[in-house]
Each structure stands twice: as C-alpha cells, then as structure tokens.
Design goal:
Elements: E1 4-12, E2 22-31, E3 34-42, H1 51-57, H2 61-64, H3 70-81, E4 85-88, H4 91-104, E5 113-115, H5 116-123, H6 132-139, H7 149-167, H8 169-182, E6 202-207, E7 215-219, H9 222-232, H10 237-245, E8 248-253, H11 257-271, E9 286-290, E10 300-304, E11 316-320, H12 323-337, H13 354-357, H14 371-382, E12 396-402, E13 407-414, E14 417-422, H15 425-433, H16 443-454, E15 461-465
Parallel strand pairs: 1-4, 4-5
Antiparallel strand pairs: 1-2, 2-3, 6-7, 6-8, 9-10, 9-11, 12-13, 12-15, 13-14
C-alpha cells in the first residue's frame, strides 16, 4: 500500500482527546509490504476508567493499575513510528490522542497520517457504512478481540490484504497515495470534496446525518477557515466532536466580511446549530431608560427592546438578555458610584437606605444630596453603556465588492436595523419603492454595525446615503 506505514489502534478512557487518556496501544510496522515489528501494551491512564468503557473494551482499572504510563512507553511508540506513515481507522481520533499525550510531555509529533475509513470510502464507494463493524460484516472478517487494540489492528490489516486481492495492488497504492497527499487530515465521514469549497468570503455550514447544522461559521476565506477547523481538531475538544460527526459542508458566498457577519448571525438564529453558543436568538432583550424627572422613583425603568421604537434607541442604556442580568449591572453601578439603591428601584423603603448608613450612598434618600445632582451622577455612570444614536438622517447602503469573484452586495440599514441585502442597483431601487420592510432591532447586528461603521472605509466597502422612504 505505502512503502512504510504503522497500523495503530488505541483504547482510551473516553472520546475526548484533550481530556481523556490512553489505556492500550497496539502498533504493527509494515515496510515494503512486509511486517517488520509488532508491539502492544496496556497503559496506566493515571485516572479511572468509566464503567461503560470497561464493559466495552474489557480493560479494567485493575488491569492497568501496574501498567506503564504513557510517558514510560512513549520512547517505544516514537521508535516504531519513526519514518513511517501513521495509519488508523478514523486516524483523527488516534492521532489526536497521541498528539495530546506527547504534548503533556512537551514533545511535538510531526508525522503524515492516513485514514482507512476514508480509504474504504474511496475503494468501495458503492457501500454506505465504512466503520470497522460494517467492514467486518461486509467482507466476512472476524476477530476474537474486538475493541482491543491489537484485535482491531489485525482486522484492518486483514481488510487491506483483502482489498489488495480484490482490486489490485496498483489501485490500493494509488488511492492511498492520493489520500496521503491531499486529504489525509480531513474528517473520515466527509463527503464534500475539498476542492469544491470556495476561497471567497462567506458562511459555511457543517452537517452530520441530520438536517440541523452542527455548526455555522463565517470567514473572509471559506476554504482556509474550514481547513483550520480540521487542523485544530487534535487540540480542541469541540472541534474533535464536530469532526467526528461531520458528513458534508455547505456554504453561502458573500462579497465581503460585513456580509458574512450579517449572514452568519441570521443563519445561527434561524437554524439553531448544535455547537454554536453565540449569536443565538435573544429572548426579550431589555435596556434601562432614564427618567427625565430627578425626583421620579424609580429613577430608571427597565424596558423591553421590542417595545421601543428604533428612533428612540439613543435614549437607552445597556442591552441585557435577562432581568437578572440588567439588575446585576445596575447594582454594580450603584456600588461603584455611590448611587442610591432606593432611588434606582433596587431596594424598597423610605428614608435613609442601608447603603447610606455604611457610606456607600451619598444620601439622596436622606435629603443630603440634591436629586438633580444624583441624576447627573447616574447619567454619567451609565454613559459608557448608552446605545449610540443612529448617525444618519435615514437609510444608508454599504456596498461590498469582491474583485476575484466579481460579487457585489449592497447592505441596507436603517436605525441600526438590517433592512435587506441586494445585489444590484435595480434590486436596490425596488427595495426603496417597497413599503413593507419592518425594522427589527437585533443586538448582534447593532454590535456589528457600531464596529464596522466606525472603521475606515475603503473602496471595497463604501457607505452612501439613500433617499428617505415615504411612509
């Protein structure tokens, strides 16, 4: 198959290469088609093996208690891997564990890898299943030590011999070499050809077997960003979980980074990917509104963003995902700036508040500070959290153009709200004449715009004023 390779398999305490540990290693070195070395050992993981894993592998805590640690067997492992290609069934799993174990010893591992799951998909595309059990059933292979390291190594070696006999040595060598040169680092179940993924700005979506995406991300270069996910899987637990499930990649191209940011935010909220923690749909966002009357109690009012007209956003302070978060933020301001908790509605009661008694309130509640001065201090304390007023008289367009793809997007905004994205002047004219565009405040869009509109604008991203739409 290859001039020199090591067929390797591990048993571990779990599926997380970052946190779980190795319990058994088996390796067979093959040079010029001839087995030249065979080695296996139990490994003391220096942690407890979960009962489920003990039942699956048959490796118990008692069995590994007196076994060598990985640090003790690492020299032998590196010796048998030296100068060879690291081959395994779902190589990202085994390679990831070895990389992390060696990293704990501050030893890097630079080695080429080949995945026999992907090789099976190349050699037998007519079959759906390419896991070890599926291969064993399809080809009539047997082992008395399934889920033990050397037993699984021997099964894969049997399968390689069978594939060579069925398809020929040249076919096996050609497909293995192609994988080694081009896609050995890709997830084993990935069906999407890497060369199909564009190197343009946009959004990418990872899918497993279901219709709900595993993950949605954005980049100014989709292909490069997708590859970075694959390359970091050995060191990042979440990346490893995603890559073990991913079957296909979809993408939506944009003309630039702003369009990718907006599209990512929208798709995450609409599709609710399993592994996206940020940009989720917000529930009942709220903000503080400061009363004009300094004697009003409470002096601030928590309002729902849905109930505030877009033109009034500049009168609001902070945006919070829950009432508790808003109250905690206000309480911190009161403590930091010696504001009165009673006046702010954080405490009930009349007369001097408890904070004043311990010298953490300047006494507006006890008549020792003018209400107007207290309100000014509150306004100054909240100034850093004030939402920015829309800096334009009406709608604006932000044009993005990508020279390589020739794609142009015009993003239309009004009072921090994303109205639409169009692709031509004709579509822009049609949008301007329509009157059914509803404005909806979105915190992520607001944050994107505050940052993007404040940045220097080049010719590839130009802002221009649009005629005001008549009601």
């Amino acid at each position: 198959m290859l001039p020199c390779f090591v067929m390797l398999d591990l048993e571990t305490t779990g599926g997380n290469a970052v946190h779980d540990r190795i319990t058994e290693i088996a390796a067979v070195r093959v040079e010029g088609g001839v087995e030249v070395a065979r080695w296996s050992t139990l490994v003391n993981p220096e942690t407890s093996i979960p009962p489920f894993i003990q039942n699956l592998t048959g490796i118990t805590n008692a069995m590994v208690e007196d076994a060598p640690t990985f640090a003790q067997v690492a020299p032998r492992l590196l010796e048998i891997l030296d100068g060879a290609v690291f081959v395994a069934h779902n190589v990202r799993f085994d390679h990831g564990f070895v990389v992390n174990e060696l990293a704990r010893m501050e030893k890097p591992l630079k080695i080429k890898t080949l995945c026999t799951v992907r090789l099976s998909r190349k050699l037998y595309p007519q079959h759906k299943g390419h896991g070890l059990d599926a291969i064993m059933q399809r080809h009539g292979l047997h082992t008395v030590a399934r889920h033990r390291a050397m037993g699984d190594v021997d099964v894969v070696l049997q399968w390689l011999q069978l594939a060579q006999a069925e398809l020929g040595t040249e076919v096996l060598k050609r497909e293995a070499t192609a994988l080694l040169q081009g896609s050995a680092s890709l997830p084993p179940l990935l069906e999407t050809p890497l060369e199909d993924i564009p190197d343009t700005p946009g959004v990418y979506l990872f899918y497993g077997e279901g219709s709900i995406p595993l993950y949605v991300g954005k980049s100014v270069n989709i292909r490069t960003r997708v590859l970075s996910h694959f390359q970091s899987a050995a060191k990042v637990a979440r990346e490893m979980r995603i890559l073990q499930e991913i079957r296909r990649v979809e993408w939506r191209e944009t003309a630039g980074e702003l369009g990718a940011l907006l599209l990512e935010s929208r798709l995450v909220k609409e599709l609710q990917p399993l592994h996206n923690r940020q940009l989720r749909k917000e529930r009942q966002l709220s903000a503080w509104m400061l009363n004009d009357d300094p004697d009003q109690r409470p002096l601030v009012q928590l309002v729902r963003m849905d109930d505030v007209a877009p033109q009034a956003l500049g009168q609001l302070y902070g945006v919070y995902r829950s009432k508790r978060q808003a109250m905690d933020a206000l309480r911190l301001l009161a403590d930091t700036h010696q504001l009165c908790p009673q006046a702010l509605g954080l405490e009930s009661g009349k007369g001097a508040c408890f904070a004043h008694q311990i010298h953490k309130c300047k006494g507006v509640c006890a008549g020792r500070e003018p209400a107007a001065l207290h309100r000014v201090r509150l306004q100054m304390a909240m100034a850093a959290h004030r939402l920015q007023a829309w800096p334009h008289p009406g709608r604006v367009g932000v044009r993005e153009h990508h020279a390589a793809s020739g794609r142009t997007n015009i993003h239309v905004f009004d009072r921090w709200c994303h109205v639409a994205t169009v692709h031509s002047e004709d579509e822009l004219d049609e949008l301007q004449t329509s009157r059914h565009n509803m404005l909806a405040f979105d915190l992520d869009t607001y944050r994107i715009l505050v940052k993007r509109l404040a940045a220097p604008l080049g010719r590839e991203r130009a802002v221009f004023q649009l005629p005001q739409v008549q009601p």
